[in-house]
Amino acid sequence: MPIHCNAQKEDIEKKVLMPGDPLRAKYIAENFLDNAKLVNTVRNMFAYTGSYKGKKVTVFSSGMGMPSMGIYAYELFKFYDVEQIIRIGSCGSYSESLNVFDTILVDSSYTEGNFAYEWNEHDCHIASSSNELNTQIENTAKKINIPFTRGNTLCNDCFDGYLDNIPKFIDRFPKDLNIIACEMEAFALFYLAKCLNKQASCLLTVVDSFYTKQQISSEEREKALNDMIILALESI
Description:
Layout: E1 15-18, H1 22-32, E2 34-40, E3 47-52, E4 55-60, H2 66-79, E5 84-93, E6 103-110, H3 115-120, E7 126-128, H4 131-144, E8 149-155, H5 166-171, E9 179-183, H6 186-195, E10 199-209, H7 218-223, H8 226-235
Helix pairs in contact: 2-6, 4-8
């Protein structure tokens, strides 16, 4: 039985959107879903199930970092028979061509961490999203005219904005991956999806940039990500 979720099995849909912030889950439920029902409150990690254009969907917050994402993604895949999870989150840009509020569709997530080794002693540091789900999102984006950039991202254990030497940090990235942004959860989601034969993808909105020195406030981060949210909802 899950120990971090008190939802009934029938209250969780097979397709889940997963923001990190519980208040972002609440915002999505209140502004985009019909008949939204709060289905999880354990540790205030809010989850809601409702309808978007007649289709049932669950929005479940993951918290911050790979350990938290690992807990909730595993329980959703394993105990609630969830088939698809799309992470919707924020990121920092490491590309001069990206600006604040741009949308990223993640192909692969690279980490320096040892999540995979701790999970099943697999020395793995790159995990890929579902090609089928990414293609579905890409086709939807073109259909509804939401621009996006597709690329590889870093999944970090430390919030990069607080690091002492970001240029040195960036210099450690494998050059062949062409990493364009940094976030903190996607690797764990992709890796567990692969282990459990499920599908996972990740949409990100740029909220700060190392190159352009742009950034937005925490309040703006919560509410200004509507293009990404709409793209995820339309895709499922």
